[in-house]
């Protein structure tokens, strides 16, 4: 079989890496900050300056802004950007070599600019390349002329672990398989644009690009308008209209869902961000069900049809029935919906094969055969090792090349033989010879540079762009901007955009005034039916909201008890003069904040002093019941539903987490430090309570947050009273005040009873007072009402298990007599109070489980009907399951 030889015009011959010379100018001087004078790199195209050293016209506005701000101003903007990114919770998953970690997104202070005319030439080439890839995909999943006429070697399909026969001849939407495509491009030494990678499955980076523009718009509010920067809103508006037009049933307002792999995925932040911005429903595989060739969203109120699915799940994981039987990210029967024409999927399932690096050297010949056109944009020189000539070239020139997986865009870093040891090179050669079809070699690309503000000076960093193209039924539109990745080390730009490089906002600057009126606000004249519901809440979301409420309340209860205890430690009285401290210590031990040995008489004297142990417990992350763990769990659940809660609410959790975790490990926390952090934490929690009360609509989402809070508050209050009030002490004034303070009821007590403190009114206020939002009775009354407002089976006439349990706990509180609860038995205990509190404490976990069983646990993991997959390939050579795009 004859194979195309490497394309000579593609070869971008590597040159020695150029280095910048130190800037000899003072960093604070106007001349030192001038973009016309920063030291660039020899033998690299400078995106900011022309060859004669003058600033390019499209950079003039940025240059003037830099001169006006000076070093102090740029440093201030840098801090503002970091603060905004932290507040917005903009994060990414980075591979540290020891697993993945979540880190803040990184955005450079100064944007990058490209002239409109230059960009239009690139856009023309990207438009053609989109058509070429669409034609190739249609052929490979259809008649396969490219294979039959030997333009492509058949091994690119039959030896490709990413190709599956079920992809063949699936129906297309709007005549296309590719709707949103990404291309990685860079400018070579000749000044022309080259494509370094194609992304046809689900290109990542669009949400981060949007976040970059929004953040820079807040930091430089007038600069983009003055510079005539082309806006992004028109592209997102076109994308939203196009996705809506793909719906098989045009009812005016079809449901578009974004299918995400879920928490822990590298797409976690971006998917939630895009869903919120575009108004789409964010779903995971377990939120979906197929009924009668239609895809539905499972909600508490029933099944809701989904017309368009924007999938960010890998192709083979979309349907465990017909593809990967181990997948939990997709939904059984999805391909059946697609074949039945009842669902549009963006991008089409099977589009992943068009992005394989092994396809790159065959693109020009494929474009000529399928479209009769010459490929306009050159690609980085790529050699597929499955062909003998190319394999020999790769093995003879390893140090000049980068070795990649032939079939997949992988999150494993490409191999650079020039930086490998002799043993590593030998092992690589053996792998290539053993499985040549699975490797490609690519020339190391020479990227252009752009100025980056770093270390109070401008430095030339290498730059690569991730561009995005939308293909509609009648048009192809290139987004006027890109996700620019910059790095002082050129080789790092070979990695995925989500692997942690610094990014820049990429501006496309026009020489004419641009449209500043286009927004995402809909101009559609179709009628929208008014409604008040909230029943469209998936069980998964309800579960996270329920646990969000529980952890918020747990944080508050622990924080208030710690603050009350610490306040007594720093008072004027000696510890021995505070009889209530022994009971507070018992309460702290009961909720896991102190070792139980502190409660055992005789051992407490051998334990470390409380004034050193309690402040440390505030910042303890090793204890699974510690305050820090509860704060982290609250943030985890808030992140899981960040598309369902307001940005203000999410920022509260971000601030809580930052405050409680921001402690220097070399500094031992003291009482003052701990009190200050607890005060701030309680303030944040009160802010969330106010936001919940005033901003959440009274739908099922609000009910589950409140249910979680009421259950946890009842449990924590019962635990506190059991440890403190069931066994009276000689002087209970200080103890009652402490308990009232820890339950946020002290001011209410004083407004009623002034300074006279007695156990009976304190117990009444915390246990049986139905008007006190902190009392046990209030919690159970509210729980009963919330359960009655949740959806039930219309045919059921009896109470559910959850409702019966709630009433079983509520009834003793309704009939409780305060005098009886306060009465002390001959053995020195409040027997009735203890019995009541033990009932509450034992039944609350049962009630929580009953609620979960009724509303939050709808399906077990899907079972496969196809059995285990046959391992016909060496698993060590298989590409990762869901690689970053």
Describe this structure in words.
- It is built from 27 helices and 20 strands.
- By secondary structure, it is α+β, with helices and mostly antiparallel strands.
- The strands form five sheets. Strands 3, 4, 5, 16, 17, 18, 19 and 20 form an eight-stranded mixed beta sheet that branches. A four-stranded parallel beta sheet has the order 7-6-11-12, covered by helices on one side. It has a three-stranded antiparallel beta sheet with strand order 8-9-10.
- Strand 4 and strand 5 (about 195-200) form a beta hairpin.
- The longest helix has about 30 residues, at about 540-570.
- It is globular, with a radius of gyration of 32 Å.
- Residues about 1-30 and about 860-885 have low confidence and may be disordered.
Summarize this entry quickly:
This protein is α+β, with helices and mostly antiparallel strands and 885 residues long. The protein is globular.
**Structural class of the helix and strand makeup?**
alpha+beta
Question: Ends: how far apart?
Answer: 32 Å
- The total count of strands amounts to 20
Considering DSSP H and I runs of 4 or more, what fraction of the residues is helical? 40-55%
Chain-averaged pLDDT: 86
Low-confidence stretches: 1-32, 859-883
DSSP strand content:
5-15%
Shape: globular
Q: Please tally the helical runs, counting DSSP H or I stretches of 4 or more residues.
A: 27
Please summarize the sheet with the most strands.
Answer: 8 strands, mixed
Compute the CA-based radius of gyration. Answer: 32 Å
């Amino acid at each position: 079989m004859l194979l195309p030889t490497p394309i000579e015009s593609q070869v971008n011959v590597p040159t020695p890496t150029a280095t910048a010379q130190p800037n000899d100018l003072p960093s604070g001087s106007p001349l030192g900050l001038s973009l016309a004078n920063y030291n660039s790199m020899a033998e690299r195209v400078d995106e900011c300056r022309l060859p004669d050293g003058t600033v390019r016209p499209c950079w003039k506005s940025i240059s003037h802004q830099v001169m006006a701000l000076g070093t102090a101003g740029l440093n201030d903007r840098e801090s503002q950007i970091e603060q905004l990114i932290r507040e917005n919770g903009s994060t990414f998953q980075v591979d540290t070599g020891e697993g993945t970690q979540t880190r803040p997104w990184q955005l450079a202070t100064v944007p990058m600019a490209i002239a409109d005319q230059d960009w239009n030439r690139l856009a023309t080439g990207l438009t053609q390349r989109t058509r070429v890839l669409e034609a190739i995909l249609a052929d490979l999943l259809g008649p396969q002329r490219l294979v039959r006429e030997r333009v492509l070697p058949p091994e690119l399909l039959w030896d490709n672990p990413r190709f599956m026969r079920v992809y063949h001849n699936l129906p297309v939407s709007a005549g296309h398989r590719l709707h949103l495509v990404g291309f990685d491009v860079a400018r070579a030494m000749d000044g022309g644009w080259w494509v370094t990678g194609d992304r046809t499955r689900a290109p990542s980076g669009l949400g981060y690009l949007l976040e970059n523009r929004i953040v820079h718009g807040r930091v430089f509010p007038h600069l983009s308008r003055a510079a005539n920067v082309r806006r992004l809103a028109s592209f997102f508006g076109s994308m939203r209209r196009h996705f809506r037009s793909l719906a098989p049933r045009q009812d005016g307002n079809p449901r578009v869902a974004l299918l995400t792999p879920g928490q822990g995925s590298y797409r976690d932040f971006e998917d939630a961000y895009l869903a919120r911005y575009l108004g789409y429903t964010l779903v995971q595989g377990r939120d979906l069900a197929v009924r009668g060739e239609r895809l539905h969203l499972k909600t508490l109120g029933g099944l809701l049809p989904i017309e368009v699915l924007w999938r960010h799940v890998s192709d083979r994981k979309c349907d465990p029935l017909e593809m990967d039987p181990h997948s939990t990210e997709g939904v059984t029967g999805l391909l059946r919906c697609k074949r039945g024409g009842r669902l549009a999927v963006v991008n089409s399932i099977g589009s992943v094969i068009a992005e394989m690096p092994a396809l790159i050297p065959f693109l020009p010949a494929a474009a000529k055969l399928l479209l009769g056109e010459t490929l306009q944009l050159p690609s980085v020189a790529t050699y597929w090792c499955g062909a003998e000539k190319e394999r020999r070239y790769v093995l003879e020139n390893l140090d000049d090349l980068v070795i990649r997986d032939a079939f997949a865009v992988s999150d494993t870093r490409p191999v650079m033989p020039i930086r490998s040891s002799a043993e590593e090179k030998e092992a690589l050669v053996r792998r290539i010879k053993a499985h040549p079809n699975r490797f490609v070699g690519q020339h190391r690309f020479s990227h252009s540079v752009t100025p980056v503000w770093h270390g109070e000076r401008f430095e030339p960093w290498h730059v690569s762009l991730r561009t995005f193209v939308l293909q509609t039924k009648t048009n192809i539109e290139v987004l006027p901007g890109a996700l620019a990745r910059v790095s002082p080390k050129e080789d790092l730009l070979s990695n995925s955009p989500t692997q942690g490089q610094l990014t820049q906002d990429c501006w496309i600057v026009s020489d004419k005034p641009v449209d500043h009126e286009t927004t995402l606000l809909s101009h559609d004249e179709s009628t929208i039916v008014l409604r008040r519901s909230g029943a469209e809440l998936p069980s998964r979301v309800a579960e996270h909201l329920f646990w969000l409420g529980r952890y918020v309340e747990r944080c508050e209860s622990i924080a208030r008890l710690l603050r009350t205890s610490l306040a007594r430690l720093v008072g004027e009285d000696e510890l021995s003069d505070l009889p209530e401290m022994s009971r507070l210590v018992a309460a702290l031990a009961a909720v896991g904040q102190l070792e139980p040995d502190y409660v055992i008489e005789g051992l407490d004297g051998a334990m470390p002093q409380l004034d050193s142990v309690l402040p440390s417990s505030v910042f303890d992350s090793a204890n699974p019941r510690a305050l820090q763990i509860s704060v982290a769990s609250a943030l985890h659940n808030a992140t899981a539903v960040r598309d369902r809660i307001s940005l203000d609410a999410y920022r509260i959790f971000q601030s809580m987490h930052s405050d409680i975790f921001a402690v220097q490990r070399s500094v031992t926390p003291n009482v003052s430090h701990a009190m200050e952090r607890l005060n701030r934490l309680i303030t944040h929690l009160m802010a969330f309570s106010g936001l919940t009360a005033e901003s959440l609509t009274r739908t099922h989402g609000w009910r589950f947050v409140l249910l979680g809070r009421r259950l946890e508050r009842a449990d924590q209050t019962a635990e506190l009273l059991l440890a403190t009030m069931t066994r009276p002490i000689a002087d209970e004034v200080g103890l009652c005040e402490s308990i009232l303070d820890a339950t946020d009821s002290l001011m209410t007590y004083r407004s009623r009873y002034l300074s006279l403190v007695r156990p009976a009114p304190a117990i009444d206020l915390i246990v049986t007072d139905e008007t006190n939002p902190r009392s046990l009775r209030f919690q159970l009354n509210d729980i009963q009402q919330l359960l009655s407002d949740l959806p039930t089976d219309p045919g059921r006439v009896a109470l559910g298990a959850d409702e019966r349990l709630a009433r079983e706990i509520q009834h003793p509180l309704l009939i409780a007599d305060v005098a009886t609860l306060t009465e002390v038995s001959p053995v020195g205990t409040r027997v009735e109070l203890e019995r009541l509190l033990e009932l509450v404490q034992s039944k609350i976990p049962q009630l929580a489980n009953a609620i979960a069983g009724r509303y939050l646990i709808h399906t077990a993991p899907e079972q496969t009907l196809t059995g285990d997959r046959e391992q016909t390939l060496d698993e060590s050579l298989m590409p990762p399951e869901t690689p970053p795009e």
